[in-house]
């Protein structure tokens, strides 16, 4: 087997419209397609970043909350590359997004910082 890359990452949102607005308006994703699946009472949106499809956004009725933050079993966080972590965190903070302070990765010497989507999903910005 030879993996060719990551096809997509799936995120379940408590409020589909709020999370869609966050990922599209705040983070710059584009909505490629969207479908309501009546049999599951669920929305599914395919989101792209810089023209590359990477995120599936779902809604489901009454999803359980994340058990702990950020050290829950399974996917810990998503990380996005940016040129200037400090500037990006300042922009997100000014828009009311909850952000942690910028710090330096001790292994690479690059800046990094965590911020959170509307459901508290940890997201990371990492210096490209």
Automatic annotation (TrEMBL):
GO terms for molecular function: metal ion binding. InterPro entries: Fosfomycin_Res_Enzymes, Glyas_Bleomycin-R_OHBP_Dase, Glyas_Fos-R_dOase_dom, VOC_core, YwkD-like_dom. It comes from the Bacteria. The keyword Metal-binding applies. Gene3D superfamilies: 2,3-Dihydroxybiphenyl 1,2-Dioxygenase, domain 1. Residues 5-128 form the VOC domain. Keywords: Metal-binding. This is Glyoxylase I family protein. It comes from Amnibacterium kyonggiense.
């Amino acid at each position: 087997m030879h993996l060719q890359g990551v096809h997509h990452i799936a995120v379940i949102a408590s409020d589909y419209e709020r999370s869609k607005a966050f990922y599209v308006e705040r983070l710059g994703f584009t909505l490629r397609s969207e479908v309501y699946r009546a049999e599951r009472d669920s929305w599914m949106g395919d989101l792209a970043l810089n023209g590359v499809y990477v995120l599936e956004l779902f809604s489901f009725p009454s999803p359980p909350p994340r058990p702990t933050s950020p050290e829950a079993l399974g996917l810990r966080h998503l990380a996005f590359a940016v040129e200037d972590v400090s500037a990006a965190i300042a922009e997100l903070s000014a828009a009311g997004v909850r952000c942690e302070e910028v710090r330096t990765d001790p292994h690479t010497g690059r800046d990094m910082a965590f911020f959170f989507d509307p459901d508290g999903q940890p997201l990371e910005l990492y210096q490209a």
